[in-house]
Amino acid sequence: MVSRTIPVQAFDLVVIGGTGDLARRKILPALFKRFCAGQMSDDCRLIGAARRDLDAAQYRDFVRDALREFAGELALNEASVAGFCAHVDYVAIDARGDMGWQKLSDLVATGEAQDAVRAFYFSVGPSLFSDIAERLERFGLTDSDSRVVVEKPFGRDLETAQALNAQLAQYFDEGQIYRIDHYLGKETVQNLMAVRFGNMLFEPLWNAQYIDHIQITVAESVGVEGRGEYYERAGAMRDMVQNHLMQLLCLIAMEPPAHFDPDAVRDEKLKVIRALDGVQPHHIVRGQYTASDGALSYREDVGNERSKTESFIALKCHLNNWRWAGTPFYLRTGKRLSHRDSEITVVFKDTPHSIFGPEAGRHRNELTIQLQPNEGITLGVTIKEPGPGGMRLVDVPLDMSFAEALGPAADAPDAYERLIMDVIRGNQTLFMRNDEVEAAWAWTDPIIHGWEARGDAPKPYDAYSAGPDDAALMMRRDGRDWKGLEK
Ligand SMILES: NC(=O)C1=CN([C@@H]2O[C@H](COP(=O)(O)OP(=O)(O)OC[C@H]3O[C@@H](n4cnc5c(N)ncnc54)[C@H](OP(=O)(O)O)[C@@H]3O)[C@@H](O)[C@H]2O)C=CC1
Ligand SMILES: O=C1O[C@H](COP(=O)(O)O)[C@@H](O)[C@H](O)[C@H]1O
């Protein structure tokens, strides 16, 4: 089932790095699905560009293969695939030289629909961003309405992120730059805002007075999946916390924006990042998976027997502001954990007094927002344990699985489908602004420098476990426990 929506404006999307892994796995399948949903009008074009010497027909074969591998059942429909491929073209270019740029410029200039949106997806490493931006301008490919999409990692620290922002700013206004964080394109992540700001129920309780703590877990069962070289330089902190977990934290903690528009939302997220306190070394647990259950160790996966890169991180942080003073936020993410499970749990405080006496037990309400898989929301409510006995309390879930509650309509577009269409619509709400990215690095850098200076080695944990024991210990020291992964 593909969600149907009205066609967006005509567009030319040039995917620079169109033969790469991201294009195959995500960009091409996402566009194909939007094509199947009727969102690409006849005059839309997808132009792949990379150094590989292909003609348009050969690139269409590449696209067909990518769709067969990554676009699921829809790609079984030959007519749909052929229809999509009719929109596809290719030009060989070299981002570091002049090869192909004039041809690309001519191709874009001819055959472009009137008023078409022109977008350039930089699906290449960030070291090429500046070269590409300069050539787009020099070969007359951009105007004030053109858009560029850039991928993470957006730098590896504050300094490199500032340099990238400065390079892009030489050629594009901030309003033309779409920095992707694909977590913001996930339907349930957007639902965080709907739940918080569309219901009267939660907002009055959404503060340190009523909330004991908040946990964010993004657990993956996969390992580094052939991206060892990149991951060795990144680790879980740069790969996941600086961006995806930070965005989740922002959405759960931010003040209500005045409007659901790009700058109002991003202003509020920025305030959250800037309110983050530094993290104490004893509030960080880094881990690295060891071989177990038939899986190779992290070090074997990346081919570095001495690696000190973390494949897991858990940390406790505080927001230094009026709403959240005293409420800790616990973040945790890792690879090769027991199962894929991304969830946010908001743990409310005890009632101030129990009228039922100590035998009844004390219970806390928990709101669990399950991001993936099986998207849904559960609210734990305390009731009387059924039966003739005395008043004993028990927790029951008020459970709303989106798929059950909404049926097939809940089968939402993939994050990349949503985000690419937002680029065409010119809606930056779900993209990171330059100052947000820099603020996130400004918080992350001292944490990383701290463990580098101390020479901390990550703690080993068994592949397919819940991570290092120290992460559980960190929680237990606070009289709390992790939710989710251990279930
Ligand atoms: N793969 C993924 O799942 C994810 C990737 N990303 C990010 O997306 C970006 C692309 O990643 P990915 O697709 O995996 O990388 P790949 O190495 O698979 O692809 C890189 C692409 O860039 C092209 N390219 C390289 N050098 C040049 C050049 N000088 N001129 C023109 N084209 C060039 C390559 O083609 P050719 O060699 O023919 O030129 C290829 O199409 C990276 O920044 C990555 O970190 C982000 C999230 C997930
Ligand atoms: O950006 C990244 O995200 C993926 C996890 O994304 P998900 O949508 O599958 O949850 C992660 O595997 C990868 O290391 C990271 O670069």
UniProtKB/TrEMBL annotation:
Keywords: Carbohydrate metabolism, Glucose metabolism, NADP, Oxidoreductase. It holds the Pfam family G6PD_C. It is an enzyme of class 1 (oxidoreductase). Signal peptide: none annotated. Residues 14-191 form the Glucose-6-phosphate dehydrogenase NAD-binding domain. Substrate binds at H182, K186, E220, D239, K335. GO terms for molecular function: glucose-6-phosphate dehydrogenase activity; NADP binding. Its EC number is 1.1.1.49. The active site is at H244. NADP(+) binds at G17, G18, T19, G20, D21, L22, A23, R24, R51, K152. Pathway: Carbohydrate degradation; pentose phosphate pathway; D-ribulose 5-phosphate from D-glucose 6-phosphate (oxidative stage): step 1/3. It catalyses: D-glucose 6-phosphate + NADP(+) = 6-phospho-D-glucono-1,5-lactone + NADPH + H(+). InterPro entries: G6P_DH, G6P_DH_AS, G6P_DH_C, G6P_DH_NAD-bd, NAD(P)-bd_dom_sf. Catalyzes the oxidation of glucose 6-phosphate to 6-phosphogluconolactone. This is Glucose-6-phosphate 1-dehydrogenase. It comes from Shimia haliotis. The gene is zwf.
